[in-house]
Amino acid sequence: MADLTTQWIPGWSESAPGDGDLLLAFSGNGILKPADDWFLRWGGPEMGGSRPEALALGSWEGQPLFVTMLPDTGLPGMQTLSLREAMLESEDAPVDLLSTGFQVLQWWQDHRYCGRCGERTAPHPRERARWCGRCSVPWYPRIAPCIITVIRHHDRFLLAKSSRVTRNFYSLIAGFVEPGESLEQAVVREVLEETGLAVTNVRYQNSQPWPFPHQLMMGFFADYAGGELCLQEDELSDAGWFSVEEHPPIPPETTIAGRLIASMKAEILEGQGAVGHD
């Protein structure tokens, strides 16, 4: 997989795509995807006569890369995938690229006006930000910190089904970090609120940007410390303790949830092997 380079470049906000430049195109919350690629080409036939505003995103394999919003043209060879479909069900999806592109584009569109005074903002000359000249305030891309955790109880781990998600996945407990709260405190609180369980030994694992709409998911392991399952019904429709060998469908490893579950399963199996060896 190629690397996305998104470091700030002087004059980035004034950069305009040229014919043949790579274009990541969204339509609403979906991605306009050619049959054999994830990019359109600026000025290509898929764009028809449309030349919308396009935002410089960085480079991909050394080529200039832009992101824009296009209408769903319905042209042959093009399909529209929802962002979730692409990230959860497409094995070849450049997940980091899609996440970055969607979040940057949404930020650009959402901050055309100052949130304090309502004045129209302009591109910041030196940073990836929008600038309010009246308030002298920069508006940066928003990032909302969230936690997501695997809870272990002996050789089992907790999986839960969201009451709001129609896919048949069971996943993990997750939630937004509140003001004044550490990440570890957020894990303890969210688990207690959603499941009625107390946890201990909270330990960080890894993170993933998650563009729904602008989250940074930070993954943890935690150990069961007590309590009985009592689900917060507006958040969870089902939950239970499962073994490495037997559990319901889980998210793919393109997601932080899938990777956390895989890591927990490996940790449990390693412990079982050590016990067996003794």
List the keywords.
six-stranded mixed beta sheet, alpha+beta, Nucleoside Triphosphate Pyrophosphohydrolase, 278 residues, 2 domains
Structure description:
The protein is of the alpha+beta class. It has two domains: about 5-110, Nucleoside Triphosphate Pyrophosphohydrolase; about 145-275, Nucleoside Triphosphate Pyrophosphohydrolase. Helix content is about 20%, strand content about 35%. It has helices at about 85-90, 95-110, 185-195, 255-275, and strands at about 5, 20-25, 30-35, 40, 55-60, 65-70, 80, 120-125, 130, 135-140, 145-155, 155-160, 175, 200-210, 215-225, 235-240. Strands 1, 2, 3, 4, 5, 6 and 7 form a seven-stranded mixed sheet that branches. A hairpin with a 4-residue loop joins strand 14 (about 200-210) and strand 15. The longest helix has 22 residues, at about 255-275. The radius of gyration is 22 Å and the shape is globular. The two termini are about 40 Å apart.
* Reported CATH architecture of the largest domain: Alpha-Beta Complex
Order of helices and strands: EEEEEEEHHEEEEEEHEEEH
Q: Any low-confidence stretches, pLDDT <50, length ≥5? A: none
Strand content: 25-35%
Q: Cα distance, first to last residue?
A: 42 Å
- CATH topology of the largest domain, what is it called? Nucleoside Triphosphate Pyrophosphohydrolase
CATH superfamily of the largest domain: Nucleoside Triphosphate Pyrophosphohydrolase
